[in-house]
C-alpha cells in the first residue's frame, strides 16, 4: 500500500499534536500555571502585585516580569531554598487566586522539586 507524502505529513502532524495534548493533559494544573509564569516576560505595568516584587526582586518589575521572578525561583530551588522558590511561584500568580491556591496546595516540596527540573 502506497501512501503519498502529503498524507504522511498530515498523519504525522496529527499524531504529534495528539501527543502534545496528551502530555499537557497529564500535568497537574499547578505545573501549567508555573509554566505560564516561566514564559510570561511582560514587565512594567503588566506586573501584578508590584509591592511583592519590590520586597523580593524589584529588578523583575522593569525587566522580565514573571519570567524574571521564576528564574529566581528556579535558582532558589536548585540551591535547595524551596521556601523562597515556593513563595515566588505564588507571587507570580498573585493576580489569579485559583492558580495561586493550586500552587499553594501542591506544597513546597512538590513545587521545589518541579522547579528544580527547569
Describe the structure.
With 118 residues, the protein is an all-alpha fold. It has one domain. It is 73% helix and 0% strand. The chain has helices at residues 5-26, 29-39, 50-54, 59-62, 65-78, 82-92, 97-106, 108-116. The protein is globular and about 60 Å long. The protein starts with a helix and ends with a helix.
Would you tell me the structural class of the helices and strands? mainly alpha
User: Stretches where pLDDT falls below 50 for ≥5 residues?
Assistant: none
Main sheet overview: none
The SSE order reads: HHHHHHHH
**What does the average pLDDT come to?**
88
Total of domains: 1
Question: What gross morphology would you assign?
Answer: globular
What is the tally of helical segments?
Answer: 8
User: What is the beta-strand fraction?
Assistant: under 5%
Question: Helicity level, as a percent range?
Answer: over 70%
State the end-to-end distance. 44 Å
In angstroms, what is the radius of gyration? 18 Å
Number of strands: 0
Q: How do the helices and strands line up, and which of them pair or pack?
A:
Blueprint: H1 5-26, H2 29-39, H3 50-54, H4 59-62, H5 65-78, H6 82-92, H7 97-106, H8 108-116
Helix pairs in contact: 2-5, 2-7, 5-6, 5-8, 6-7, 6-8
Amino acid at each position: 500500500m502506497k501512501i503519498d507524502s502529503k498524507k504522511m505529513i498530515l498523519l504525522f502532524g496529527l499524531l504529534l499534536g495528539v501527543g502534545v495534548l496528551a502530555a499537557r493533559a497529564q500535568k497537574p494544573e499547578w505545573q501549567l500555571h508555573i509554566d505560564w509564569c516561566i514564559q510570561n516576560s511582560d514587565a512594567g505595568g503588566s506586573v501584578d502585585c508590584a509591592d511583592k516584587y519590590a520586597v523580593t526582586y524589584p529588578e523583575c518589575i522593569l525587566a522580565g516580569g514573571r519570567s524574571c521572578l521564576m528564574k529566581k525561583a528556579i535558582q532558589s530551588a536548585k540551591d535547595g531554598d524551596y521556601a523562597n522558590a515556593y513563595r515566588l511561584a505564588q507571587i507570580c500568580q498573585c493576580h489569579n487566586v485559583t492558580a495561586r491556591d493550586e500552587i499553594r496546595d501542591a506544597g513546597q516540596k512538590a513545587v521545589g522539586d518541579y522547579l528544580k527540573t527547569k
